[in-house]
């Protein structure tokens, strides 16, 4: 099993959706991320320079999501994965985004995407 960095239950507020009422006020989104990274160098050295700085990545994600106006959760997930892959040591990013309470009778609705760097090359 590959090494992973996990960011769990990042709860943010944003404009997201296609309906008029969804475009007027911010809604909660719940984000979970798994990044495949070789953690051996950081494990041996105990130095941040050898590690993926998940705090920096999380701050970029917060900035993106809270200031976005995406219509689709799919687009948001795709762009969050792009941020994760901005560190060349991240081999793959899996992003799950849910909209709690988006459907009556369902706790949440969401999407899950897995992306590699080549998915963003033209």
TrEMBL record:
Query: Which first-to-last residue range defines the signal peptide?
Result: none
Top-level taxon: Bacteria
One Pfam family from the UniProt entry?
FolB
Keyword Lyase among record annotations? yes
Pathway of action: Cofactor biosynthesis; tetrahydrofolate biosynthesis; 2-amino-4-hydroxy-6-hydroxymethyl-7,8-dihydropteridine diphosphate from 7,8-dihydroneopterin triphosphate: step 3/4
Molecular function via GO: dihydroneopterin aldolase activity; dihydroneopterin triphosphate 2'-epimerase activity
Q: Which reaction does it catalyse?
A: 7,8-dihydroneopterin = 6-hydroxymethyl-7,8-dihydropterin + glycolaldehyde; 7,8-dihydroneopterin 3'-triphosphate = 7,8-dihydromonapterin 3'-triphosphate
**CC terms in the record's Gene Ontology section:** cytosol
Q: Which SUPFAM superfamilies match?
A: Tetrahydrobiopterin biosynthesis enzymes-like (SSF55620)
Which biological process, per GO, is one annotated for this protein?
Answer: tetrahydrofolate biosynthetic process
Give the EC number: 4.1.2.25
Check the record and name the InterPro entries matching this protein.
Dihydroneopterin_aldolase (IPR006156), FolB_dom (IPR006157), GTP-CH-I_C/QueF (IPR043133)
Stored SMART domains: FolB
Name the UniProt key words of this record, in alphabetical order: Folate biosynthesis, Isomerase, Lyase
State the top-level EC class: lyase
Record bears the keyword Protein biosynthesis: no
Q: Which PANTHER family match?
A: DIHYDRONEOPTERIN ALDOLASE 1-RELATED (PTHR42844), DIHYDRONEOPTERIN TRIPHOSPHATE 2'-EPIMERASE (PTHR42844:SF10)
- Family membership, please give it: Belongs to the DHNA family.
State the function annotated in the UniProt record: Catalyzes the conversion of 7,8-dihydroneopterin to 6-hydroxymethyl-7,8-dihydropterin.
Protein's UniProt name: 7,8-dihydroneopterin aldolase
- Recorded source organism is Gimesia panareensis
**Designated gene of the protein:** folX
């Amino acid at each position: 099993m590959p090494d992973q960095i996990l960011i769990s239950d990042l709860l943010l507020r944003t404009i997201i959706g296609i309906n008029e009422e969804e475009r007027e006020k911010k809604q909660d989104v719940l984000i979970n991320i798994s990044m495949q990274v070789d953690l051996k160098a950081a494990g041996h050295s105990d130095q941040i320079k050898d590690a993926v700085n998940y705090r920096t990545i999380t701050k970029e994600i917060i900035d993106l999501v809270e200031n976005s106006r995406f219509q689709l959760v799919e687009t948001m997930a795709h762009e969050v994965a792009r941020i994760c892959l901005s560190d060349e040591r991240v081999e793959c990013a899996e992003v799950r985004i849910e909209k709690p309470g988006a459907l009556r009778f369902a706790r949440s609705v969401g999407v899950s995407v897995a992306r590699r760097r080549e998915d963003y090359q033209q």
